[in-house]
Each structure stands twice: as C-alpha cells, then as structure tokens.
Amino acid sequence: MTDARVDTETHAHHGYISDKDKYLNRLKRIEGQARGIRGMVEDEKYCIDILTQISAMTSALEAVAVGLLDEHLRHCVMDAARLGGPEADAKITEATAAIARLVR
Amino acid sequence: MTDARVDTETHAHHGYISDKDKYLNRLKRIEGQARGIRGMVEDEKYCIDILTQISAMTSALEAVAVGLLDEHLRHCVMDAARLGGPEADAKITEATAAIARLVR
Amino acid sequence: MTDARVDTETHAHHGYISDKDKYLNRLKRIEGQARGIRGMVEDEKYCIDILTQISAMTSALEAVAVGLLDEHLRHCVMDAARLGGPEADAKITEATAAIARLVR
Amino acid sequence: MTDARVDTETHAHHGYISDKDKYLNRLKRIEGQARGIRGMVEDEKYCIDILTQISAMTSALEAVAVGLLDEHLRHCVMDAARLGGPEADAKITEATAAIARLVR
After folding, report:
1. All domains of chain B, ordered by start, with CATH?
2. pLDDT > 50? residue A4
C-alpha cells in the first residue's frame, strides 16, 4: 500500500508485499525470458536450448510464487490466525488450495 | 534439417517445428500472462489470485515445453535414430537430460 | 499438543494430525504401489505402463504432502501465530522452505 | 529381451532395461522410504520432518521415472524409429504422453 487510500474494492491494494520492487523486477525479468524464448522459436534455435530456457523461466516463476506465498502466510494468514474463528480456518483452506495448485 | 545443410551457425534454423505459429502464439500469450501478473503485483491484488495466475502460466509453459519436446523427439531424435551410431545415443542422452530438468 | 505436555523427546508425538488413520491408510497404499512397481520392473512389464504407475504414485504422495502441510499450517503454525513474536516468524520460514521443496 | 523367448503376452518381458538390478534396488529403497514415512506419521513425528522425507522420496521416484524413460527412448523408441512408419510416430506420441504426465 503506497498511499493512504481507503480501499473500497475487494481484493485490491492488500499491501502485504514487503519488498514489492523485488517482485516487480523479477517479473519483468520473467517477461523478458518469455520474449527471449519466443525469439528462439521464431529463429528456430535448437530445441534443447529452448527447453533449457523454459526450465529456467519455470524455476524463476516458481520462486516468485513461493515468495508471494511466504508473504501471504506471514501477513494475511497470520492476521487471520490472531483474530481466530472460521475466518482463520478459511484462510488456511484457501492457502492450501493454492499450494496444491503449485505442487500439482 | 534433412536437406541442403548450408547452415554455418551452430544451433540455428533447425526447422523442426511443424506448427511454428501455434508456438509463437502460445508464447505471446504467456508473455501477456507475465505482464498481467506484474500488473497484479503492482496493483497489490489479492495474493491468492496472483498465485492462481502463476499456476496457469506455469501450466501453459509446461505445455509448450512438452510440445517442443515432442517435435524434437519426432524429428531430430528420429533422424539420428535412423542414422544410428553414437550420434543417436548422444541425442537420447541430451533429450533425457532436458526431460529431467522439466520433471525436476 | 495443547494439553499435558509430558513430551521429553524432540519432535515426537506432536498430535497435530486430525485424521491420522486416513494418512496411515494412504501411505500403506503408496507402499503397495512401490511394491507393485518393483514387481513390474522385475517382470519387465512395458515401460510406459510402469511410468503410468509411477505418475499415479507421485500424485498420491503429493496429496499426502499437501494434506500434512494443511494440518501443519492449521495447528502448529496457527498456534505460533497466536503466540506471536519471532517463534511465529520462524514457523512461517520453516513452512515456506518445506513448500519450496515440494514445489521444487 | 535376453533370450529367444517368443513373447505371447502383451506388454510382458520387454527386456529393455539394461541395468535391471539398479532399478530394483532403487525401488526397494523407495518402498523402505514409504514404510519409514508411515512410521513417522504413526509416531506423530514433526510434520516438517515428514515433509522433508516425502520430498526426498518424490525425487527418488522421479529419478527412477527419468531413468526408465531414457531406457525406453534408447530401446523401444529407437527400434521403432529404425523401422519407421506409423509405428514410430505412435511410439513418440505414447512417450510424449508419458512425459506430460511426469511433468504435469
């Protein structure tokens, strides 16, 4: 949350990301990786080299996901835990579902 | 490249991708997903929603990888198999290493 | 363990698993899958069929992992969150590291 | 196929595994890991320690899968490639489907 805006939308400006610039930079780099891979396909580079780049990009993306999940647990879920009740339980269920999608 | 190999660059213009446009479109869409996810972090959208988008993007990327690997096996590896010898063996070793990186 | 902690061993009898029998049964089934796969290799069954069984076993194992992680977040991490302080932070760091190993 | 046996069963005794004992030993170890993890749940060991063991077991299983896939490509798929025709194509399609299940 960069400014003092009174949040009226749902799911917006949660302000839970402690190092937002780090994630923005990583995602910009991932976007560049996607563009680079597209260029490799365009130029018909050697398939195995393209796959190596895809593996690297997938790892970078997973690292972002794990980082964001850490922030989420540390802030949203912890806050809910301190309040307790069904809201806390619901937050865990939601987080577990997200983890299951990442683990597959 | 089965014909006239005037190719002087290493690993360039292999021409093994039978439906190049399909892959270029998919990768353009993946690039858009990366940009969208960056926008979500920028706007501090709800973390779980961002993670859902990252999972979708990872799946799209894995589908591209498996598709490219299929093309690679179908063309480069098959060609090498028909020629036989140590070259064929080396192609399999290389493909397996790429698969191991994807499977992790 | 919220009650009578006579526990003198480290990391033993944490009592956080709400449906222990479910996990024991699932793990017994996974053990049977491992044995079945070994039998398939012994009998030199068709490789693709063995790989299908390995994929099924991996999925079963991941489901157990996600289930145990859910229990862990719901009990240990929640308890730590309510207590707060560095202990709570350390629990999240530990959970995130475990998630990273699962996601890879 | 180590001997001249006329194979009458479908998908049996393919004899494509060059180092069968290595795979049998690895799978025996994986079975032991499954048994160990079940014991940890039975004894209610610390959840994070159980998850660490599950991650190790999943990695061991993936290594077996990649190894068997390598053997399969090296033998069955190569043989089909040398024969050529629709059979070769079908083998690649089948192998790719197996890889997709492993990559998820």
Report:
1. 19-103 (1.20.58.1000)
2. no
